[in-house]
Design goal:
- By secondary structure, this protein is of the alpha+beta class.
- It is about 20% helix and about 20% strand.
- It contains eight helices and 15 strands.
- The strands form three sheets. A nine-stranded antiparallel β-sheet has the order 1-2-3-11-8-13-6-5-4, with helices on one face. A four-stranded antiparallel β-sheet has the order 7-12-9-10, with helices on one face.
- The longest helix is centred in the middle third of the chain and has 13 residues, at about 175-190.
- The radius of gyration is 20 Å and the shape is globular.
- The chain starts with 11 loop residues before the first helix and ends with a strand.
């Protein structure tokens, strides 16, 4: 049982991380908080949102239900942490999943494959993978496609892995639709004026994990960090301000959104396990279905996810999870050290980044969840 393993101590977080990470025997999941059940208890709190901050029309155009219909929760002892259980409209998740796999993987965005492949080899990851993924598995082990080898994509201000900083020189335009989605969620959570400037997409396979870390490289910690999950469910661990603080384990199902703000903005967290062995959550089974509409239909003119595109997306998420993490790097009126105030890089001054390293144990560690 996990309960005896959460006592305070130098390795309290690491001990629980290993507990949920282990394969044999599989971990007992009885102590994992499941916000989708909507049960409020001593540990789980009901959270009020800013209902008037986002109109029904604005929400619908981003693929979100009216804010009054969202179910939001907090955790006792973690002020500023908000968990929103799948606020997406039916048909919106396929749109955002396709954006993660087909659109955001395109250049000039940066991905892990760029570290050991030429730009020509990584200029169309979707196009080089789609035909293979559309075909039914033949039974024998096949070489992985580029899409299956993908581990992360950064958007906007790209993080410098060596110096652990952002810079205006390493920047590409941040996607306008993702910036709009993030701004609406942040406003509903009580943070009007949130401006998405940094993002990383993590692509998890069934054996992937995310190591214990804190997101602290942004110059302004007063703005929240937003996390969006699509695909297979995962175990997420949220700890305290110290490694010896025992974490709380919770499920992240497809469509769920987390907001880390205030005191929770700098808490340790990790993802020890992807749960493809569980039945698909209702959001993945009923919301992610073939040929449904786009949240942008009528605004951008984009049609719903085509059957051909959905064949690729559905094959991918059978054993995978995608997570978008978005944050604001600079506070209002703030600039990078040595850069005059009000200056912005070309491309609207929007960007993204993250922090990643490969540990000796083979766990993928990143500053984004």
């Amino acid at each position: 049982m996990a309960a005896p393993m959460v006592e305070r101590g130098e390795d309290a977080f690491r001990t629980l991380f290993k507990f949920y990470r282990r394969k044999h025997p599989p971990p007992d999941l009885n102590n994992v908080v499941d916000f989708s059940k909507g049960i409020v208890c001593d540990k789980v709190l009901s959270t009020n949102l800013e209902l008037s901050a986002v109109s029904d029309g604005e929400a619908s155009r981003a693929g979100l239900r009216p804010v009054r219909d969202w179910r939001a929760f907090g955790l006792q002892g973690s002020p500023g942490f908000i968990f929103i259980a799948n606020p997406f409209l039916r048909g919106a998740q396929p749109h955002w999943l396709r954006r993660c796999l087909k659109t955001y993987t395109q250049k000039p965005n940066v991905c892990n494959l760029d570290m050991h492949m030429s730009p020509a080899e990584t200029d169309d990851i979707w196009g080089k993978s789609a035909d293979i993924l559309r075909k039914a598995p033949c039974g024998k082990k096949e070489p992985k496609t580029l899409l299956e080898k993908l581990r992360w994509v950064t958007l906007g201000y790209h993080y410098n892995w060596n110096t652990k900083t952002y810079s205006p020189e390493h920047h590409t335009p941040f996607p306008a639709d993702l910036q709009r989605l993030s701004g609406l969620v942040a406003a509903a959570a009580g943070f009007p004026g949130f401006h998405a400037e940094a993002g990383i997409l993590n692509y998890y396979r069934s054996d992937s994990s995310l190591g214990i870390h804190v997101d602290e490289s942004e110059l302004d910690h007063s703005r929240p960090l937003l996390s969006f999950c699509f695909g297979q469910s995962a175990i997420f661990l949220l700890g305290g301000t110290r490694r010896e603080d025992p974490p709380t384990a919770m499920y992240m199902h497809s469509g769920d959104v987390m907001v880390m703000s205030g005191q929770s903005r700098l808490l340790y967290h990790a993802v020890p396990r992807i749960l493809q062995d569980l039945p698909p959550p209702c959001g993945l089974r009923t919301t992610l279905s073939k040929g449904q509409g786009s949240p942008e239909q009528g605004v951008s003119g984009e049609e719903g996810v085509s059957g051909e595109d959905w064949a690729v997306c559905s094959r991918y998420i059978q054993s995978s999870r995608v997570n978008m993490t978005v944050r604001q790097v600079l506070g209002p009126g703030q600039s990078f050290p040595g850069v005059p105030k009000g200056s912005a890089p070309e491309g609207e001054g929007e960007g993204g980044g993250g922090e990643r390293r490969r540990s000796s144990s083979g766990e993928t560690e990143s500053s984004d969840t």
